[in-house]
């Protein structure tokens, strides 16, 4: 077994914490003594203790003189727990192999400094850094920008349509693709749709994986006039996890009815009498929501793209063609009038989702 093998195991352990760590990062740790794994740890928010502490505790006295493999730099500050870097030193770990430094400004190299100052050999295997960054991209984005990573998700036909003009019963993509979407939802802190989608589909917008989460998936409806029906599935299923983003033009009695049903209503006045989406995202950032996924219709999709709040896209393509000028595209609105003004995406990844189906994952390019 090599350093690469042990670090891969740490990354695999970290992935087991998906949905269980927010607002903390995904972290896995492996303690190795004389070529043998003697301790493993996976961080969860509920478990409080960080992955390296759990791995050291499992190793016991065998941690002294051992090596620690971890996907993220050990922390150096006091939070819900004490600094892990100091605990690593106290345990007698002689070598630390990590995949990346911590983007948290409170850490950001300070953990490595504590280790090196105590004589611990520290090595960052840069070939694993891209994988480690992708694993914790929401946490990294939040630490650098102070707001959640915003992903626009949609299911499209091969010609880029999301709905037909007359009848939208049935699905564009397969059940396997829809199960993949649930995996995305499980890894996300909050989800947004527009009132038009709710009125048309009476959707739940829930995480249906059945897997435990560190925090409830916050379901958000953009609804400037508070048209969300009290009898809708979202309201009837609300358990402190439904938020409606409205405007001050909404009727007070509608607001009271929704709040009496347990729905939180917030006012974000924006241009043209619409809900101000950037203000909503800033509000989520202040409450340490690391990630937000948008699953909406054509108008909302364009609105969020035009507002420049989308960081990445995850587009599922079904093997179908709708055609026609009345079938709605993924993003409607006015769009860009010139090809040179098109919104660019970078770092494109293709995912084979099912037979004859694929998904495109890519990041919105910004020139600033």
Structural overview:
The structure is a single chain. The chain has a nine-stranded mixed sheet with strand order 11-10-9-8-12-6-13-16-15, with helices on both faces. It has a five-stranded mixed sheet with strand order 2-1-3-4-5, sandwiched between helices. It has a two-stranded antiparallel sheet with strand order 7-14. It is built from twelve helices and 16 strands. Strand 3, helix 3 and strand 4 form a beta-alpha-beta unit. Helix 3 runs parallel beside helix 4. The chain is α/β, with parallel strands linked by helices. It starts with a helix and ends with a strand. The model has no long low-confidence stretch (mean pLDDT 95). The radius of gyration is 23 Å and the shape is elongated.
